[in-house]
Design brief:
Blueprint lengths: L1 E5 L7 H16 L3 E4 L17 H12 L1 H18 L10 H6 L6 E4 L27 E4 L14 H8 L2 E3 L1 E2 L2 H11 L4 E2 L9 H5 L12 E4 L7 H12 L3 E4 L11 E3 L4 H9 L3 E4 L2 H9 L4 E4 L2 H5 L5 H9 L5 E2 L13 H23 L29 H5 L5 E5 L5 E5 L9 H5 L13 E7 L2 H6 L5 H11 L3 E7 L5 E6 L21 H9 L4 E5 L1 H11 L6 E6 L7 H15 L3 E8 L8 E6 L4 E5 L4 H7 L22 E5 L17 E5 L2 H7 L4 E5 L2 H7 L13 H10 L2 H8 L5 H9 L2 H15 L1
Parallel strand pairs: 1-2, 1-3, 3-4, 4-5, 6-7, 8-9, 8-11, 9-10, 11-12, 12-13, 17-19, 19-20, 20-24
Antiparallel strand pairs: 14-15, 16-25, 16-26, 17-18, 21-22, 22-23, 24-25
């Protein structure tokens, strides 16, 4: 059986050539003869190129300075391709030529590399050749990449049409799966890059002789080195080893490095195979460090840490349990740290089996049912870390108490499984809201609402509606669960059985609460009485999944959530505040109405009864929270940031009021109340509550988290890198400082539209 492969290989890039070789060899191991269709497009491999721009002129000047090395490199690329790649005898330069050709194949394979990235082609459109549209043959995809966060506007239908021609689809990044699902409504397998389908022994057979340098640090950067620059310097100084840098004539990473400009693919493999250590920000640099089991440090950009599902490097390292090898701003290189190559090798071998299983099924035109069932030692399937909300439903549901919630370096809690206790019953997987999305619900009814008791309203963040709802449940003999700060200012959910205790649950708390054993307590209370549970929407949904449904005597209230801040950061902030004041904190009010609802204050009461109170946005913690510096990663892709709410009620501030609306009530605080379910509607009719119908669209405009998640701060990754390594006092001064004076002045005097223009000009200038 013979397959035709459409992929990149002409461009003299190590990854492009080696992935094509790997694909051919992987297919050969499965009994197929594979041939690269020699389609030449947008890939100029000449050393000296026409001087069509200033950049080209600079590039040619640099190439002339190293012409002999560049020529040797060019010849080695061509020789390697000639020796190890099967290519069509004819070169095709257009879709029309391929359409007319008589191709001797049984099927076509699209992949790997960025062949489905429209932005790299001259017309910024998808190239139909790389979707195999020139032939009626059956088509499969192996690990192509879009390398985009979303399909360019207006190209969705075009992509849908292209994908319909494939019997089997796979991609190499999680975001690629999302794009395929959104465009075509199909599930694509997530498979390894082809270079990982071969073993270290396979690649050793293709490598050149050792470079004869003895022990050395290898540096390979395909983009600005960023924090890798310090990493290389520290390693060189600490070990005394010389530094070899592959390529880099226009981007020297270390001043004392010897540049290797003449390496072809075989020499590239040898440099990795024989290195003492590798520093790289290249995906394939990371791949071959892992293949040859070389100690390595992988540099990634802040945006990759913010959206790891779109990063090839982060996805691979997470899958292999090697995320500690990531270098980012503030990260100190640890030469002494050892790598558990045995565990990483087992994970790589399992992933390789999965990828080959997909490829085997696709070649045979058989169904592919996804990854193998996890072996006992691999643990249960839980939500990926960047999607885990920390709702703790899995912990509560585990019948063997095999799951505990453990804080990571950012201060957030995630489930950790004790393999000695786990019996692989799958209950935790079944209750996870992330793995089992909920149903769509009708659009809610919106109201402006406020408590009729002025004292309670004054003590509440907005209109005091929660207290009215809690009173209703308590008067019926029920119990209320909500979040309260303890004596150490640790936020945890507690149960309240009396109205006199409700003051502890009132008011906004800008930190993620600790649920501990609350879900089990709720379940126990539901056996004998009514329960009101208040929390973030992910906590409410987690409770329903743990309970296995919606009990009639359970009422839930979710919150319009900006995103949950790190408990670790908050508790460090508390200790920082106490050190500065020399007094323990007794009480914290995140939103105190000392100057009215719309000018809320962050109020601190110390043990000696002294008080500090300032507008929230004028405080260090308030600025960090407002900038979304330390929200949970899952918050930035929150599925609950919509009008499809899990709770019977949704509560928030009634932002977005028009001038002159409710003028008498406005200074005292107003709640936005969404009634989401028939159960909620029944209770709503019985509440002693002042209310006015409110336009739902206006409510969304005032609370954009009802439409979309909060975007991550651009320097979020830099903040947590510093938070992990530096004293908190230093981190707070650097990241929570007020904006420059001119920005504060502009905010005061300029209308919003002009402020946005100024921001745009600033961004353009920085570039």
């Amino acid at each position: 059986m013979k397959a035709g492969l459409v992929t990149f290989y002409h461009l003299h890039h190590y990854g492009a050539v080696l992935q094509a070789v790997a694909t051919e060899r992987a297919l050969a191991s499965l009994g197929w003869d594979c041939e690269v269709i020699d389609y030449f497009v947008n890939q100029d491999t000449r050393i000296l190129k026409p001087p069509t721009s200033l950049g080209r002129v600079r590039g040619d000047a640099a190439a002339l300075l190293h012409y002999q090395a560049e020529r040797t490199r060019w010849q080695r690329y061509e020789a390697f391709s000639e020796a190890y790649l099967k290519r069509t005898a004819r070169r095709y330069e257009s879709w029309e030529e391929l359409r007319e050709a008589e191709l001797p194949y049984d099927l076509l394979i699209a992949g790997s590399d960025q062949i489905w990235n429209p932005t790299i082609f001259p017309d910024k459109r998808f190239d139909p050749v790389f979707f195999g549209t020139f032939s009626p043959l059956r088509k499969i995809a192996y690990a192509p990449s879009f390398a985009l966060s979303r399909v360019p506007e207006g190209m969705e239908e075009e992509l849908r049409g292209y994908l319909e021609g494939f019997s089997h689809l796979s991609v190499r990044e999680q975001r690629g799966r999302d794009i395929v699902r959104e465009a075509a409504g199909r599930e694509a397998a997530l498979v390894l890059d082809p270079t990982l389908l071969l073993t270290a022994e396979d690649w050793s057979a293709l490598a050149a002789e050792p470079p004869g340098e003895g022990r050395y640090i290898l540096c390979y950067c395909v983009k600005a080195p960023g924090p890798l620059r310090d990493c290389v310097r520290q390693l060189a100084e600490r070990t005394g080893l010389p530094v070899l840098q592959v390529c880099g004539r226009r981007r020297r990473v270390y001043s004392k490095a010897r540049l290797v400009l003449d390496a072809g693919p075989a020499e590239f493999l040898s440099l990795f195979q024989n290195a003492a250590c590798v520093c790289t920000n290249s995906f394939h640099g990371t791949v071959f460090s892992i293949q040859f089991r070389r100690p390595f440090f992988a540099g990634v950009e802040p945006r990759e840490l913010e959206r790891p599902e779109s990063s090839r490097v982060c996805s691979l390292l997470s899958r292999l349990g090697l995320t500690e090898r990531v270098v980012h701003e503030g990260h100190a290189a640890k030469w002494e740290d050892t790598i558990d190559w045995s565990a990483a090798g087992e994970r790589l071998e399992a992933a390789r089996r999965e990828a080959l299983a997909y490829l085997r099924a696709a070649l045979a035109d058989e169904p592919y049912y996804g990854r193998e069932a996890p072996k006992k030692e691999e643990g249960p399937v839980l939500a990926e870390k960047d999607r885990c909300t920390g709702c703790s439903a899995c912990r509560a549901a585990c019948p063997r108490d095999a799951i505990s919630m453990v804080r990571d370096r950012e201060g957030f809690s995630y489930p950790a499984v004790d393999p000695a206790k786990c019996v692989h019953c799958g209950i935790c997987t079944g209750v996870c809201p992330v793995l089992r999305p909920g149903e769509n619900r009708p659009r809610p009814a919106a109201f402006a609402a406020w408590n009729q008791d002025g004292r309670i309203r004054r003590d509440s963040t907005s209109g005091g509606v929660f207290s009215t709802l809690a009173d209703y449940v308590l008067e019926g003999g029920g119990v209320v669960f909500g979040a309260a700060l303890d004596g150490r200012q640790h936020l945890r959910h507690i149960a309240c059985f009396r109205k006199d205790d409700l003051w502890r649950l009132r008011g906004a708390k800008y930190v993620q609460s600790d649920l501990d054993s609350i879900f089990r307590e709720v379940k126990q209370c539901l056996e004998t009485r009514q329960v009101l549970f208040s929390g973030t929407p992910c906590q409410v949904d987690g409770l329903y999944r743990y309970l296995g449904g919606r009990p009639e005597n359970l009422t839930t209230c979710d919150l319009v959530c900006h995103g949950v801040p790190s408990p670790g950061v908050w508790e460090d902030m508390v200790r920082y505040i106490e050190r500065k004041r020399g007094q323990p904190l007794q009480t914290v009010r995140f939103r105190n109405k000392v100057e009215g609802w719309e000018k809320s204050h962050f109020t601190l009461v110390y043990e000696d009864k002294t008080v500090d109170t300032r507008p929230l946005n004028d405080t260090e913690y308030g600025r960090g929270f407002g900038r979304a510096l330390f929200l949970r990663p899952a918050c930035h892709r929150c599925p609950y940031a919509s009008l499809n709410r899990p709770g019977d009620f949704t509560l928030g501030d009634l932002w977005g009021l028009e001038p002159g609306e409710l003028p008498e009530e406005r200074p005292k605080g107003l709640s936005l109340l969404l009634v989401n379910t028939s159960h909620g509607s029944h209770i709503f009719d019985q509440l002693r509550l002042s209310r006015r119908p409110f336009d739902l669209e206006q409510a969304v405009r005032g609370n954009p988290q009802l439409d979309h998640p909060t975007a991550p701060a651009k320097n979020r990754a830099a903040f947590f890198a510093a938070y992990e390594r530096e004293p908190f006092d230093q981190v707070a001064r650097r990241f929570f400082a007020p904006p420059p004076l001119y920005r504060r002045v502009l905010k005061t005097v300029l209308p919003p539209e002009l402020r946005e223009k100024v921001k745009g000009l600033e961004a353009k200038y920085k570039k």
